[in-house]
Amino acid sequence: MSVSGKDHWEHVYTTKGPTEVSWYQPVPAKSMSMIRETKVPLEAPIIDIGGGTSTLVDLLLNSDYSDITVLDISSAALDESHKRIGDRASEVHWIESDILEFEPLRRYYVWHDRATFHFQVNAAAIEKYLDIMRTALVPKGFFALCTYGPQGPDRCSNLPVQSYSVEELTFMLESGFELLTYELEDHKTPTGALQQFLYTLWRAKDSW
């Protein structure tokens, strides 16, 4: 019997602590910097895709952003974040969903993703992801995307991943988005290994 994507991630988050996964960051500084760079109002809706146990939501709350949504496929990951944040968890909109099954009921000024896009490894999944993102983003909204860079791994958490150069992302997105900034980072995993990440910030050119 094959293991579903949800089963895989529930297993990951119930067998590893938040600081044990390879993508763990004590402080997601670059993601926070990109969101601040958008200069959206503090009350503007922001969604973190694949937010899991990331502390980005903590930083957003502590920076007075007031309309935050965290989406993740794993209930265990979301529960962990609930516990970490405590009483302020009620200030956050939590969505348990596979990103490819997400049906947005509202639109967001910022769509942030450091977790899920690079797991879309075929053309159909990539296009579906982008269609959902476009549906959920306001006109002239921001797409803050972090993927594995050109020297990144080809697998993560025992699943295949897609690495990108900024040129490849530009070819994919330039018809609808303007690239504002990009930066490569060598991320040190909890085991001390280095993984290359590519941070990019895009702005939608027009309404869809």
Output the keywords.
alpha/beta; 29% helix; seven-stranded mixed β-sheet; 28% strand; Rossmann fold
Condensed summary:
This protein has 208 residues and is of the alpha/beta class. 29% of the residues lie in helices and 28% in strands. The strands form two sheets. It has a seven-stranded mixed sheet with strand order 3-2-1-4-5-9-8, with helices on both faces. It has a two-stranded antiparallel sheet with strand order 6-7.
General description of the model:
The protein is of the alpha/beta class. The protein has one domain (29-204): Rossmann fold. The chain has six helices and nine strands; from the N terminus they run ααβαβαββαβββαββ. A seven-stranded mixed beta sheet has the order 3-2-1-4-5-9-8, sandwiched between helices. Strands 6-7 form a two-stranded antiparallel ribbon. The radius of gyration is 16 Å and the shape is globular. The termini are far apart. The model has no long low-confidence stretch (mean pLDDT 93).
CATH topology: Rossmann fold
Helix content: 25-40%
CATH superfamily: Vaccinia Virus protein VP39
Quaternary organization = single chain
Question: CA-to-CA gap between the ends?
Answer: 40 Å
User: Could you tell me the number of beta strands?
Assistant: 9
The CATH architecture is 3-Layer(aba) Sandwich
Order of helices and strands: HHEHEHEEHEEEHEE
Indicate the CATH class: Alpha Beta
Shape: globular
Which structural category do the helix and sheet elements fall into? alpha/beta
Strand content: 25-35%
Low-confidence spans: pLDDT under 50, at least 5 residues?
Answer: none
**Individual helix count:** 6
Strand ordering within the main sheet: 3-2-1-4-5-9-8
* Biggest sheet statistics: 7 strands, mixed
